[in-house]
Design goal:
Elements: H1 4-9, H2 15-32, H3 40-54, H4 67-76, H5 81-86, H6 90-101, E1 110-113, E2 116-119, H7 121-131, H8 133-137, H9 140-148, E3 153-155, E4 163-168, E5 174-176, E6 179-182, E7 199-202, H10 204-211, H11 229-232, E8 233-237, E9 250-254, H12 262-265, H13 268-278, H14 281-290, H15 303-312, H16 329-339
Antiparallel strand pairs: 1-2, 3-4, 4-5, 6-7, 8-9
Helix pairs in contact: 2-9, 3-4, 3-7, 14-16
Bound molecules: zinc ion.
């Protein structure tokens, strides 16, 4: 619900340094990972050679190799290309996709089956044999990277409801309790399946139950490494909570003119109507209403106000950049905004 870079900034001001370090760790894992017998470049070469060998002969694991497969794999194995793709910045993804579409059609990667996109055999082989996303997801490198990005204690980037944590399990290993959503789906864009900025730490509800293989692109959806959901949307209460009415419903209002549909496609408003109870939002709203006088600058510096602010912090952090650290922090901050009109508590 905020830009991931802002989440990092709250822990380490050298955001670019943190991100560069993680990109490099991921690339070294792909290139020389001890748990992988061969580097990604070698694996891509292996597939290229196998396809060349079977060109115009028999189908290979249901793939009938042709010049397009070869041209694409030659592009992928050209010097520096795989490293570039793994470290590809989100703003460069559309350009790369368009270049690759000039070489190979989408139908080589997926087919439409009852309106559902399904990987072709070639697409599957790219994900499983060349990019090996599944191996990475179970690797130590994965948890190391997300510890570096401060996802040891955080929440889902998309919904800010489910905790996204890394804990020490009984085997003494770090285990992540969250998923990585492929912003550009791995079914449609298997060559982006191991791109660092295409991985969005998210909960299984957002990733595996709601988003699924829906087509997300930079022009149609906010990208959590580029945009900030908090600046684009506000939870608005339907009741007059400032006048003491109980909070019973909310709606999610788009506050900018950006044409995109992240909230709609992730069903955020519908979900939050039910989250109101689990978030204890009505009680939070009532508690703020009762103490609303303490938000006034007349109480600045007074112990009573300090105590009240301290009580607010765990539910509605003063800084927006702390939103990902607390479940429902975005919702609570938006409720608080109704009362704290002079921003005596909320800092951003
Ligand atoms: Zn989520």
């Amino acid at each position: 619900m905020i830009n991931i870079k802002e989440h990092i900034r709250m822990h380490n001001p050298d955001v670019q340094g943190v991100l560069d370090g993680c990109e490099q760790t991921l690339w070294l894992y792909m290139d020389k990972g001890k748990t992988l017998a061969r580097s990604i470049s070698m694996r891509a070469e292996d597939l290229l050679n196998e396809i060349k060998k079977h060109r115009n002969t028999q189908p290979l694991k249901q793939v009938q190799p042709d010049d397009t497969h070869i041209e694409f794999l030659e592009y992928l194995t050209s010097p520096g290309k795989l490293e570039e793709i793994v470290k590809l910045k989100p703003e460069m993804m559309e350009k790369e996709i368009s270049t690759i579409r000039g070489i190979i059609g989408d139908e080589y990667f997926y087919s439409l089956d009852d309106d559902k996109r399904k990987s072709t055999e070639f697409g599957k082989r790219l994900i499983d044999e060349v990019f090996k996303y599944g191996n990475y997801r179970n690797s130590k490198t994965f948890t190391e990277i997300y510890k570096c990005l401060f996802f040891k204690k955080a929440t889902c980037v998309y919904c800010n409801s489910t905790p996204a944590i890394i804990f020490k399990n009984k085997k003494g290993r770090d285990q992540a309790l969250f998923e990585l959503d492929h912003f550009y789906s791995e079914v449609c864009y298997p060559y982006l399946s191991m791109s660092f900025y295409n991985h969005i730490p998210s909960c299984s509800n957002c990733n595996a139950r709601i988003k699924l293989a829906q087509e997300f692109t930079l022009s149609s959806h906010l990208h959590p490494f580029l945009n900030c959901f908090d600046e684009e949307y506000t939870f608005k209460t339907t009741q007059n909570i400032l006048g003491g009415e109980a909070l019973t419903t909310i709606h999610l209002e788009k506050t900018t003119s950006t044409q995109e549909k992240l909230a709609v496609d992730l069903e955020l408003e519908n979900r939050y109507l039910n989250y109101l109870t689990t978030a204890s939002a009505p009680e939070f709203s009532e508690g703020v209403y009762v103490n609303r006088h303490l938000l006034s600058s007349r109480h600045t510096g007074q112990d009573e106000q300090k105590r009240f602010f301290k009580m607010l912090e765990p539910k509605a952090p003063r800084e927006k950049n702390n939103i990902l650290q607390k479940s429902y922090a975005k919702l609570n901050r938006d409720i608080l905004k109704v009362f704290d009109v002079d921003k005596n508590y909320l800092k951003s």
